[in-house]
Design a protein that fits this description.
Structural class: alpha/beta
Protein name: Enoyl-CoA hydratase
Pfam families: ECH_1
CATH topology of the largest domain: 2-enoyl-CoA Hydratase, Chain A, domain 1
CATH superfamily of the largest domain: 2-enoyl-CoA Hydratase, Chain A, domain 1
Strand content: 15-25%
Order of helices and strands: EEHEEEEHEEHHHEHEHHH
CATH class of the largest domain: Alpha Beta
Family: Belongs to the enoyl-CoA hydratase/isomerase family.
Number of strands: 10
GO molecular function: catalytic activity
InterPro entries: ClpP/crotonase-like_dom_sf, Enoyl-CoA_hydra/iso
Number of helices: 9
């Protein structure tokens, strides 16, 4: 299925049940455009619908950064619509907007700025390289920063940390160590080990029973927007649905040597 995609702003590869989605505009710091948004919709639909894909890794090409947000040179592409029909297309960049219930791991490096958080906020977890820095340039331009920090709050990043990120502009940058402390990422690795580590984690997850994994992702993602009692009922439904059928194994034997982090 991936071979039928005609991509100019992304790279897409599937190996051993792991899809690697690469933002591929390094000359523009992998900033997103209308073309990239359209191609991402195709790619996430492929990840969602192809049973051979069990996990995805999202990364950026080049040495400078993961993503710098929207391409300010191209600008917005939705202002021609009536005001009440306008939707921020950034909300459609990530996998969950396309109902991808397969785990997506963010592999972040270099600059992660502004609208890049649309991607980070919809990954199930992210890791980053030692040189990664996070900042929000909205304040420098005198414009509102709202949807990206809202997504960070949904990730569980403390309110004060989110507001400091959103209000202080590009002059203050969150380091990899701070990102780990506040919960933006789960692990920091040397720069030259980022891709291999993300792929290793993805392959470990891909080796698990897909229905169990995908049921966990969907239950947890939907629980973020539901009252606790409703979320619990949904969780029970996904447990019954995902646990049915063949492929379950004995957890006492289906494991590797444990590691700590």
């Amino acid at each position: 299925m991936s071979s039928s995609l005609n991509l100019s702003t992304l790279e897409f590869d599937v190996t051993d049940h792991v899809a690697t989605v690469t933002l591929n505009r390094p000359e523009r710091m992998n900033s997103f455009t209308e073309q990239m948004a359209a191609e991402l919709a195709e790619v996430w639909a492929t990840v969602r619908d192809d049973d051979d894909i069990r996990v995805a890794v999202l990364r950026g090409s080049g040495d400078r950064g993961f993503c710098s947000g929207i391409d300010v040179a191209e600008g917005t592409w939705w202002r021609h619509k009536p005001i009440f029909n306008q939707e921020d297309p950034g909300e459609l960049l990530g996998p969950k907007a396309h109902r991808v219930w397969k785990p997506v791991i963010g592999a972040l490096h270099g600059i992660v700025a502004g609208g890049a958080m649309y991607f980070v906020n919809e990954c199930d977890f992210s890791i980053c390289s030692e040189s990664t820095v996070f900042f929000d340039p909205h304040a420098n331009a005198g414009i509102v920063s709202s949807l990206e920090p809202m997504g960070m709050r949904a990730l569980g990043v403390p309110y004060g940390e989110v507001m400091r990120w959103a209000l202080l502009g590009s002059e203050e940058r969150i380091t990899a160590q701070t990102a780990l402390r506040i919960g933006l990422v789960t692990e920091i690795v040397p720069d030259d080990q980022l891709t291999s580590r993300a792929t290793q984690l993805a392959c470990e997850i891909a080796a698990r029973r897909p229905n169990g994994v995908q049921g966990t992702v969907r239950a947890m993602w939907e629980a973020r927007d539901l009252p606790p009692s409703t979320a619990a009922r949904h969780g029970k439904f996904y447990t019954d649905l995902g646990n049915a059928g063949a492929g379950r194994s004995d957890a006492r034997t289906n494991r590797r040597s444990p590691r700590t982090r």
